[in-house]
Specification:
By secondary structure, the chain is of the alpha+beta class. It has a domain of 199 residues: FAD/NAD(P)-binding domain, CATH 3.50.50.60. It is built from eleven helices and 20 strands. The strands form four sheets. Strands 6-5-14-15-16-13-17-20 form an eight-stranded mixed sheet. Strands 8-2-1-12-19-18 form a six-stranded mixed sheet, covered by helices on one side. Strands 3-7-4 form a three-stranded antiparallel sheet. Strand 1, helix 1 and strand 2 form a beta-alpha-beta unit. Helix 1 runs parallel beside helix 6. The two termini are 39 Å apart. The model has no long low-confidence stretch (mean pLDDT 97). The structure holds flavin-adenine dinucleotide (FAD) and 3,4-dihydroxybenzoic acid. 3,4-dihydroxybenzoic acid binds next to strand 15.
């Protein structure tokens, strides 16, 4: 099998890249190890930055988001039993869309298949070869057979556990990493949200986040120690803990049946460079952020917009400048988001250290009283036009 761009991974990054290349008249093949139902049901992010929403609309993928998603003009911070609203529209003139990653992936998959795109589910990439030549290859298994995909370029959009990052030669690649001593227990609940905007709560017992998927479905998270077994958190315990951590006078948490429960470890990781020879990394394959601040999905989509632009230039007039700049350009945004996610995480999660606690409260009070401090949060949360 031969194509121009071999893409590994049918997550949001791989699928959007394939779609943008198709719009530019460039053929690609997507290899995805899982089946379609699994990929479409995987519960993950829910906040789409202002600029990413525009990118989705511009590439013909905004219709359902604009009809069924919810525009949010701010978030609420809770600490010390009180509440502070960060008004994005007022502070930076931008907003975000509450639109789940599962829905973006469903729309993208349907669109690629309707456009005759090749998305091969059940195809597991096992090796990337010849990245320093003009014709790299992706070895993969499909329906029990060993296959080879020959291409001009390989885009590894295969997430944190994929083979892309590990295929960059040793000595070329450098990894920067930070681990955190806590995880998120995330639940999905069949109950209307108890708030109109997302609530980020700092509490001595740990961080809590109230998000949503629709007018009927809430998405909630609790800080828990690493290694927590979700089975130790029956429904009743989840609701009691959320209610306690998010409590402010006059507010009540609506409760309902939980429909999913999962643990997300927290990690910051950046791989530099994000390309070598004819191999390009995008999304979680190249970098991970802790989820506080909702940057993972947005970064992945920014990466592939840049990469698609570089490939479009290469195939339309032969210019390789944008492809050569891809890694440096992507990393500028990545490091901004890494800092923001790290900052939001350390601002809101409990470490158990009394000094940290005092610093957090001081900074939260500063946010509540200073327009300049809140503007930084608003700009980063809604997404900087140019990092
Ligand atoms: P992925 O979505 O991981 O897609 C990679 C794809 O590659 C997968 O479909 C995988 O099956 C496939 N693949 C892997 N290896 C191979 C192979 N060898 N061959 C073929 N295919 C392969 N971000 C937030 O902003 N908020 C959140 O609440 C949030 N929660 C998260 C919870 C979890 C459990 C995880 C893992 C991530 C979460 N994220 C969250 C991050 C966000 O979802 C990711 O940043 C986003 O999915 C990145 O998209 P991607 O396309 O780069 O990678
Ligand atoms: C969601 C996830 C986040 O990490 C976040 O900061 C806000 C919302 C969500 O899944 O809805």
């Amino acid at each position: 099998m031969r194509t121009r761009v071999g893409i590994i991974g049918a997550g949001p990054a791989g699928l959007l890249l394939s779609h943008l290349l198709h719009l530019a008249g460039i053929e690609s093949v997507v290899l995805e190890t899982r089946d379609r139902a699994y990929v479409e049901a995987r519960q993950r992010a829910g906040v789409v930055e202002h600029g990413v929403a525009r990118l989705l609309r511009r590439s013909g993928l905004g219709e359902r988001m604009d009809r069924e998603g919810i525009t949010h003009d701010g978030i609420e911070l809770r600490f010390d039993g009180r509440s502070h609203r960060v008004d994005f529209s007022d502070l930076c003139g931008r907003s975000v869309e509450i639109w789940a990653q599962t829905e973006i992936v469903k729309d993208l998959t349907a669109r690629r298949l309707a456009d005759g795109g090749q998305v091969l589910f059940g195809a597991r990439a096992t090796a990337i070869e010849g990245i320093e030549t003009d014709s790299p290859r992706v070895r993969h298994t499909l329906e029990g057979r060993e296959e080879v995909l020959e291409c001009d370029y390989v885009a590894a959009c295969d997430g944190f556990h994929g083979i892309g990052r590990r295929s960059l030669p040793e000595g070329v690649v450098r990894t920067f990493e930070r681990l955190y001593p806590f995880s998120w227990l995330g639940v999905l609940a069949d109950v209307p949200p108890s708030c109109e905007e997302l609530v980020y709560a700092r509490h001595e017992r740990g961080f809590a986040l109230h998000s949503m998927r629709s007018e009927e479905v809430s998405r909630l998270y609790l800080q828990v120690p690493n290694g927590t077994d979700p089975d130790d958190w029956p429904e009743e315990r989840v609701w009691e803990e959320l209610a306690e951590r998010m409590a402010v006078p006059g507010w009540e948490l609506r409760r309902g049946p939980l429909t999913s429960k999962g643990l997300t470890p927290m990690r910051s990781l950046v791989t530099e460079p994000m390309s070598h020879g004819r191999l390009y990394l995008a999304g979680d394959a190249a970098h991970i952020v802790p989820p506080t601040g909702a940057k993972g999905l947005n970064l992945a989509l920014h990466d592939v917009a840049l990469l698609a632009e570089g490939l479009r230039a290469r195939y339309t007039h032969g210019g390789t400048g944008a492809l050569e700049d891809y890694s440096a350009a992507a990393l500028r945004r990545v490091w901004r988001a890494e800092h923001f996610s790290y900052w939001m995480t350390t601002l809101l999660h409990t470490s158990g250290d009394a000094f940290d606690h005092r610093l957090q409260l001081s900074h939260l009070e500063y946010l509540a009283s200073s327009r300049a401090a809140s503007t930084q949060l608003a700009e980063n949360y809604t997404g900087l036009p140019r990092p």
